[in-house]
Amino acid sequence: MRWDAFERACPEIGELARARFERDQLVMLGTIRRDGSPRVSPNECDFGEGRLFVSMMWRSRKALDLQRDPRVVVHSVTTDKAGTDGDVKIYGHAVDERDPELRAAFREAIRRRIDWAPDEPEYHCFSVDVRSAGYVRFGDRAEALTWDQDRGLRRLPPPG
């Protein structure tokens, strides 16, 4: 499901994720290597045209991972070992965006954020098709949420 549809289906996690990703301007991206082992890489992300975009350098290992196997996880950057900031996880499939209008929307989104955009066609641009999501926060305001297309939003017992 495209990002805008996910935010409508699950605003409880979608709004937290958007705010966190926009604030940090960085996520941890999990992909699957050729040998089946995980690869975790820092990555910038942007929003535009109802999509969550993740882009990367041309022919980078993580881009090649996604072209071979589109399964991906987008995880918020964790900076507090106590976990009171909360962690957002978005699970889905990467869509290799080749449409010139969508790529232009991505370039405009990144230009608004950092006053720079990559040159065409020397970068990979993927959007994330959301399949499931989770959020967990520890401490005094502990909570745990999970969502998927089949079961919708579920509140789990608070961690800790």
Characteristic terms for this protein:
Pnp Oxidase, Chain A; 160 residues; nine-stranded antiparallel sheet; alpha+beta
- Report how far apart the termini are: 32 Å
Task: Give the helix proportion (percent range).
Answer: 25-40%
How large is the share of residues in beta strands? 35-45%
Compute the number of strand runs: 9
The shape is: globular
Our Rg estimate from Cα atoms comes to 16 Å
Our count of domains comes out at 1
What is the CATH class name?
Mainly Beta
Quote the CATH topology: Pnp Oxidase, Chain A
Give a short synopsis of this structure.
This protein has one domain (3-156): Roll (Pnp Oxidase, Chain A).
Could you characterize what this model shows?
- It is a single chain.
- The protein has helices at residues 3-9, 11-24, 61-68, 100-114, and strands spanning 27-32, 38-43, 45-48, 51-57, 71-76, 87-96, 123-137, 143-148, 152-156.
- With 160 residues, the chain is an alpha+beta fold.
- Helix 1 (3-9) crosses helix 2.
- The longest helix is centred in the C-terminal third of the chain and has 15 residues, at 100-114.
- The chain is globular.
Element layout with pairings:
Layout: H1 3-9, H2 11-24, E1 27-32, E2 38-43, E3 45-48, E4 51-57, H3 61-68, E5 71-76, E6 87-96, H4 100-114, E7 123-137, E8 143-148, E9 152-156
Antiparallel strand pairs: 1-2, 1-5, 3-4, 4-7, 5-6, 6-7, 7-8, 8-9
Helix pairs in contact: 1-2
